[in-house]
Amino acid sequence: MAMACRVVSSNLVILSLCLLVLPCLSQGQGLCPFEAIYQFGDSISDTGNIGFINPMGPCSNLPYGKTQFGKGVGRCSDGLLMIDYITQALQHPLLPPYLQNSTETNHGVNFAVAGSTDLDTDFFKERNVTWKNSQNDRPIHDQLNWFREHLNNSVCKTLMPTECARKLSKALFILGEIGFNDFNWPLKSGKTVTEMTAYIQPIVQKTTDAVRELIRQGAVRIVVPGLFPMGCFPLYLNHKGPNAVTLKDASGCLGPFNQLAKDYNKALQDALSLLGKENPNVFILYGDYYTAYESLLRNAPGLGFDDPLKSCAGNCTNPSKYLIFDHVHPTQEAAKHLAAYVIKETLSKIPCAQ
Ligand SMILES: *[C@@H]1O[C@H](CO)[C@@H](O)[C@H](O)[C@H]1NC(C)=O
Ligand SMILES: *[C@@H]1O[C@H](CO)[C@@H](O)[C@H](O)[C@H]1NC(C)=O
Ligand SMILES: *[C@@H]1O[C@H](CO)[C@@H](O)[C@H](O)[C@H]1NC(C)=O
Ligand SMILES: *[C@@H]1O[C@H](CO)[C@@H](O)[C@H](O)[C@H]1NC(C)=O
């Protein structure tokens, strides 16, 4: 994880202090004791907001949730998500979705919404990109508004701004994965993968704007995950387009789709690296979801998965044999492995609060 090292090394003094003096490795897996966790993003990390926005939608109903909950709970999976495993590893209860209006928010809140984009809807309208569930979408901009609202009405209600910032400095912020839908909706509405190159910088810009806003509010520990190798998702692999077969590379994935994700991830890492230099007291870590997924694909047979490029299609008998539950969302079993990778490679490298 070159990125993590580069950003953290600009905080070398603080880092080494932490390693020498503070109980950095006090918790089970060498993880810091964060006071709270705040998650922003899309369906990869939505623990139920979509269920309040669209109770009739797929993720709110079976077969979603069948493995873990026996009913749909607004998670786009058969069970737990990566963020659920991360939350558990950090010894916190599962994060309540913001729209649940839970009073138990001391441990953090989840603002992610399935289907959400980084870019605002106007960006897509101007480019003739429309999709049928766009009214459910809560772009990152809206999620940040919710966050400010939450600070005002709950976590920082009785605190001075400096006290609020101090409280947030002990929390973990995870911004993403987000950006997949910014590519997926246009691709579904007929844009080509090549055309998507022009979307990379605007999306990265939105992500970094969001990180800046979190920093302004007091965030000091921020993980920004990149995109998965989307060319390995059954969503695109099963696409019947004329080029679908010829686009496949040696691993059976769609090369140009993976290249798009790689190009985006590279641009994101470059932007985060700059942001880290601008904010030497803030720890901004890139979350390498791409490599996490690649590693899972590679190790899938040994881990008991069947063909890792095939999806369970929502109604297979044993979702734990598949990486993907529907056509794009990891199964609970896959999420468990992906989370373990991120915990080991990224979360364990965050220096602890003093
Ligand atoms: C949460 O609070 C808002 C604002 O008061 C309200 O509109 C909404 O219905 C509440 N949602 C739930 C699930 O209680
Ligand atoms: C969007 O569609 C309208 C109507 O078909 C067309 O006139 C316009 O040129 C299109 N704009 C772009 C950016 O493709
Ligand atoms: C939060 O409170 C401040 C001060 O009362 C106010 O200026 C701001 O508009 C509020 N923001 C939100 C999102 O409620
Ligand atoms: C069940 O799986 C089949 C393919 O195996 C698929 O065509 C169908 O849409 C799936 N049904 C549901 C409800 O997901």
UniProtKB/TrEMBL annotation:
<protein>
    <submittedName>
        <fullName>GDSL lipase/esterase</fullName>
    </submittedName>
</protein>
<dbReference type="Pfam" id="PF00657">
    <property type="entry name" value="Lipase_GDSL"/>
</dbReference>
<dbReference type="GO" id="GO:0016788">
    <property type="term" value="F:hydrolase activity, acting on ester bonds"/>
</dbReference>
<keyword id="KW-0732">Signal</keyword>
<keyword id="KW-0325">Glycoprotein</keyword>
<dbReference type="InterPro" id="IPR036514">
    <property type="entry name" value="SGNH_hydro_sf"/>
</dbReference>
<feature type="signal peptide">
    <location>
        <begin position="1"/>
        <end position="28"/>
    </location>
</feature>
<dbReference type="InterPro" id="IPR035669">
    <property type="entry name" value="SGNH_plant_lipase-like"/>
</dbReference>
<comment type="similarity">
    <text>Belongs to the 'GDSL' lipolytic enzyme family.</text>
</comment>
<dbReference type="InterPro" id="IPR001087">
    <property type="entry name" value="GDSL"/>
</dbReference>
<keyword id="KW-0378">Hydrolase</keyword>
